[in-house]
Amino acid sequence: MSKGMKVFLVAFLVLILGVSAAIKITFVKKEVAVKNYLINEMKYKDNEIRSARGVVGSLPTFAVKVVFSDEPEVEYFYKEESGKVIQLPKTGLGDENLKHNEKNKKQNPRA
Q1: Cα–Cα distance measured from residue 61 to residue 55, given in angstroms and rounded to the nearest whole number
Q2: Per-residue pLDDT tens for 16-48?
Q3: String of b and e for 8-44 (b: at least 16 CB within 10 Å)?
């Protein structure tokens, strides 16, 4: 293997690792922002949130998939941009009956 090829492979590996690290850091920042929003603004307790995991959506959009302890079969998606967190709308039938749909929360906010 030539020296030029070795340099290329090392540079390529460093680039891949750098991109992977940047994506992981972005996920962690978004997860923390969404969890803080749910706890501090929406008044959820930490144990009410089963999980909050960063995911890549379309466009590409970084979103956070949240599962609540009392509704483990439903996934909610939140987006954080410019310091503001919003719940992304769900597109299934009967979404208005979901426990943690924020459209309903605005009408009946938590204590």
Answers
A1: 8
A2: 999 999 999 999 999 999 999 999 999 999 999
A3: eeeeeeeeeeeeeeeeeeebeebbebbbebbeeeeeb
Q: What is the band of 111 on the pLDDT scale with cuts at 50, 70, 90?
A: very low
CA angle (79 as vertex; 75, 70 as ends), nearest 5: 30
Nearest to 101 by CA among 75, 82, 79: 75
Q: Report the C-alpha gap between 108 and 64 in whole angstroms.
A: 24
For residue 98, the Cα-to-chain-centroid distance in whole angstroms is 19
How much is the pTM? 0.80
- For 53, the 3-state DSSP assignment is strand
